[in-house]
Structures are given as structure tokens and as C-alpha cells.
Amino acid sequence: xxxxxxxxSIPFPELNFTVPYVPTPKHVxxxxxxxxxxxxxDVVYDLGSGDGRIPIMAVEEFNAKKAVGIEIRSDLVxxxxxxxxxxxxxxxxxxxxxxxxxxxxxxxxxxxxFLLPDLMELLRPKLEKELxxxxxxxxHEYPMAKWKPVKVVRLEDKYMYHTLFLYEVGKSF
Length: 173
Ligand SMILES: C[S@@+](CC[C@H](N)C(=O)[O-])C[C@H]1O[C@@H](n2cnc3c(N)ncnc32)[C@H](O)[C@@H]1O
Description:
Elements: H1 4-9, H2 26-35, E1 43-47, H3 53-60, E2 66-71, H4 74-86, E3 93-97, E4 110-113, H5 117-130, E5 136-140, E6 151-156, E7 161-168
Parallel strand pairs: 1-2, 1-4, 2-3, 4-5
Antiparallel strand pairs: 5-7, 6-7
The chain binds S-adenosylmethionine (SAM).
């Protein structure tokens, strides 16, 4: 039987996503980038970048050489690109509209993500294949199955707990 989502996912592949948009609070995003020790030599990729807050912060506050957000939803891509333009960061922050499973990731020295375990499981072999030695990965909320975290950080704010998992290529897998 044809459900509404199945029907719409054919002409509009961007609607065929399973991870909802829930922005990482900015203070948590800052801790993610601190945990990965982002600096001027880094190229930061946020997988499922929402409104672009993590790539923007990586460049503005951590002086990353470059940051890339990959986002499947065109409305969020538009919001993020507009924010990048307003802040004059076009040369250093790129927002790609696409599926994280299809965009090459080999350039990243730091990867951040706030995704659900099913999609992370699909991403795992891609990250293992494409990321270079020493690249760091920070996952907000969910651990990557089979990888050994280098560090786990628990944050608490007024509303909830946040768990951050830091991995490193060569140490964690
Ligand atoms: C929980 S939100 C996190 C947003 C942002 N990274 C942050 O931390 O504020 C997950 C984002 O991933 C996007 N997403 C889900 N599946 C995706 C996929 N296959 N490829 C690219 N983006 C995806 C969603 O549209 C959503 O914006």
C-alpha cells in the first residue's frame, strides 16, 4: 500500500529523511568544537547541519580554516546559506544540499554530528573508509557502535543532559 510519505519521497527525495531537525544548543555546539580541539588548520564537516550553527561557529569562534555543512532539507539549507551570507563567511563556510551518505567526506579533519543511530550505522563504513588518520569525530547524544570513544563528556543545562562522544581515526577504530 502507498503511504503518503512513500508517495512524496519519490518526486521529492529531500523529504525522505528520518532524522528530525533538533538544533544543538549553542553552548553544547561550543563544547563539541572544544572537545575536538578545532583550530586554524582544521576543516570541519557537520553532517546534517540544520541552520548551519556548527560550521558557522567553527569558523567564527574557533578560526577553522574551512567548515562545511551537509543538509538534506532545502528550507534549512536556505536558512543556513542566508546566515553565512549575512556574516560574510561565504569564502570559508559552505553549505551543501545533499545526503550525508553521498557527499565525499575525505577532506574533513573534524566531523560533528547529531544524528540517530540508524543513520550513524549507515555512515560508519563511509567514515572508516574516507577519513584520514588523526581526524576527530564528535557525536552529540548517540555513540557510534563498534568505535571506542577517546573521551565521553556529559553536560547538564537547565533543561536536559547532553552526552558528547569524541572519536579519533587510528585510536577509536
Ligand atoms: C538533530 S538535527 C542537528 C542539526 C545540527 N547539526 C545541529 O546540531 O544543530 C539533524 C539534521 O540532520 C538532517 N538530516 C537528516 N538526515 C540527513 C541526511 N541523510 N543527509 C543530510 N542531512 C540529514 C536533518 O534534516 C536535520 O537538520
